[in-house]
Write a structure and sequence with these properties.
Elements: H1 15-22, E1 27-32, E2 40-44, E3 50-55, H2 60-80, H3 89-101, H4 111-118, H5 129-135, E4 144-145, E5 154-157, E6 160-167, E7 172-176, E8 182-185, E9 190-193
Parallel strand pairs: 1-3
Antiparallel strand pairs: 2-3, 4-9, 5-6, 5-9, 6-7, 7-8
Helix pairs in contact: 2-3, 3-4
């Protein structure tokens, strides 16, 4: 498969890496509309071909990162068979190697974040504080990360107002003002500070 149709989604200098990785492999790459539940995915199809989908709305460096993540699934399964865990040791090793090989594709300020991430790749982009902070993505809203708010701060999230109550072990307990119900927020949820 040719990688040229992806060029408009990719950072500069990334195409040679994709061409090398794709080679003559039967991988179909589809560009998807934005999905809130995932940035990309990999599937082995019933006819034994392979399909990767990537959200079209991602910034180029994140698009390339997610595509690398999904291609690492393909290479891990090719090398070790389909009985391995999808985000197990074999996938982590493949992903880390691919990230290190293509490190020069990323901007200078993102390279240390990618280096740190490659030491122990996570299954989810959202599990990497460095990556989430770099790309400022969570729910598409502009504003502050929940972890930066002080106790008592009122903020808006998805058109509802909340009050910051307290920090739990990793997350934050907040109260929805309209109902008085308590909700747990992840530290890197993006919210709009109101007071």
């Amino acid at each position: 498969m040719t990688a040229h149709f992806l060029q408009k989604y990719l950072p500069e200098n990334s195409l040679p890496y994709l061409q090398q990785w794709l080679g003559q492999h039967p991988i179909q790459i589809l560009i998807s509309r934005e999905r809130s539940s995932k940035l990309g995915d990999y599937r082995r199809m019933p006819d034994h071909s392979h399909q990767i989908t990537i959200n079209s709305t991602l910034p180029p460096e994140l698009f390339f990162f997610v595509l690398t993540h999904e291609m690492a699934h393909f290479f891990a399964f090719q090398k070790f068979g389909y009985r391995i865990r999808p985000h197990g040791r074999e996938w982590k090793e493949e992903f880390a190697k691919m990230l290190m090989d293509s490190l020069s594709v990323y901007s200078k300020d993102l390279q240390p974040v990618i280096l740190q991430f490659s030491k122990s790749p996570k299954a989810s982009f959202a599990a990497s504080t460095g990556l989430v902070k770099y790309f400022h993505t969570d729910n598409g809203e502009e504003g502050n990360f929940v972890e930066t708010l002080k106790k008592g701060t009122i903020f808006c999230y998805r058109q509802e107002n909340y009050k910051m109550e307290t920090k739990l072990k990793k997350n934050y307990l907040c109260t929805r003002l309209s109902t008085g119900k308590k909700y747990v927020f992840k530290p890197l949820a993006k919210v709009k500070k109101l007071s």
